[in-house]
Amino acid sequence: MMTDFKDKLESLRKSEIDEFQVTSKDFPDFYQVWDKYSYQSGIKGFAQKGGKVIYRRKEKVK
């Protein structure tokens, strides 16, 4: 089953979810979506040990 990364990114952007993880195995598929995603500036990736990346919505500066 392939993950719908566009749906995950949209859910994150709309604050429907707090975060999601991408493994090194899934990263090439994720990057194809990320490369075309219009709201990259609102989401930040945090690298973890073992090749995982956790994506979270950036906090708004007040």
Please, could you describe this protein's structure?
With 62 residues, the chain is α+β, with helices and mostly antiparallel strands. The chain has a domain at 5-44. The protein is 27% helix and 23% strand. It has a three-stranded antiparallel β-sheet with strand order 1-3-2, covered by helices on one side. The longest helix has 9 residues, at 5-13. It starts with a helix and ends in a 5-residue tail after the last strand. The mean pLDDT is 92.
Task: Give a brief rundown of this model.
The protein has helices at residues 5-13, 27-34, and strands at residues 19-22, 43-47, 53-57. The chain has 62 residues and is α+β, with helices and mostly antiparallel strands.
